[in-house]
Amino acid sequence: MWLSTEASTIMGGLFVSVQTAGTPPKASKKKPRPAGTLYRGHEGMWSWVFHRITGVAIFFFLLVHVLDTALVRVSPEAYDAVIGTYQTPIMGIGEVGLVAAIVFHAFNGLRIILVDFWSKGTRYQKLMFWIVIALWVLTMLAFVPRHLTNVFSH
Amino acid sequence: MATATAEKPPAAADAVPSFTVTLIIRRFDPEVDEEPRWQDYDVELYGTDRVLDALHKIKWEQDGSLTFRRSCAHGICGSDAMRINGRNRLACKTLIKDLDISKPIYVEAIKGLPLEKDLVVDMEPFFESFREVQPFLQANSTPGTGKERVQSVADRARFDDTTKCILCAACTSSCPVFWTDGQYFGPAAIVNAHRFIFDSRDDQAKVRLDILNDKEGVWRCRTTFNCSEACPRGIQVTQAIAEVKSAIMRGKP
Lengths: 154, 253
What we know:
The complex is a heterodimer.
Chain A (H helix, E strand, L loop, with lengths): L1 H21 L20 H32 L1 H10 L3 H29 L7 H29 L1
Helix pairs in contact in A: 1-2, 2-3, 2-4, 4-5
Chain B lengths: L17 E10 L9 E10 L4 H12 L18 E4 L2 E4 L14 E4 L6 E3 L2 E2 L2 H9 L20 H6 L17 H6 L5 H11 L7 H8 L13 H5 L6 H14 L3
Parallel strand pairs in B: 1-5
Antiparallel strand pairs in B: 1-2, 3-4, 3-5, 6-7
Helix pairs in contact in B: 2-5, 5-6, 5-8
């Protein structure tokens, strides 16, 4: 369960920061705000946060995906019915999110492998993070228009 | 609330300009407070002052109950690590001029260690991890000619970076993995293990690698690089942890 506790630590911090941003500093005198400020990490911390969030999201997708695929063994009709509900525009947009998460997780995973195994990896981690973001944007630019035309033209 | 407004024209033309800076400090008195609370202070400061000077001014002139640690005040003792504007810094090495004084400066205790009072945390869990990695020379050989263990310049340079640690806990308390349950050894302990693992005069590297090859050891490092960015001595902490990881995989330093 440490997976989710780590993620919730950071999310708790995020929530606090939203409060902080909205409240004028003087108000903080009266309003108790026991939680500390959000730790202001740089690229490394945010890449980890996104990696963790996308990882958990992909895990839940895979869970559902294994279950719906396993349905074909139970009854092909039930399988067809379930897969049929995936052909809706809402699911199509959900697939954009899924691909976005997987593409980030994949590229950043390669970055982490380089950080761990390449002797100069730690020195270039920030640059590699921005390369990951650039590759992610390029992949999504190639994927999203084509995918959405497919989704909305059927 | 006028922050960063220059004072009225000084009498002498060459007087150093001072500024009113607002500090918002996260206070906690265990005898009174259920939860920590934020308190504002307006302090008159010069650009050359440090956050530690601001804390001194508050403690000495405004509110004597403000509690924080400091000893040498020159970045060596490692007593005054705290979270300044959301980042772990030494108060004695953070100049006011390097912060945006048009906004209040947020100061709070470091995260992940039990809060005792105001900016003071219980450092015992931190030092416990430090002691566990056996941070002292363990040599099986006797020094040559009965005097000293000679080491080449290259051998000494191998672990030079990690000798700089002052045990301020800025790195360990910046680590998201350490925040969750405090079970992780933490960057500082690994840095101090690295200092002896890669020392050619030391013979117990294997023991330390075994200690760190633990569920709560180096493998919990998620390379967020918060530690490297927090270190007031500029130690490449994540790099050191990565070197210990690969030494464990090789089975030798």
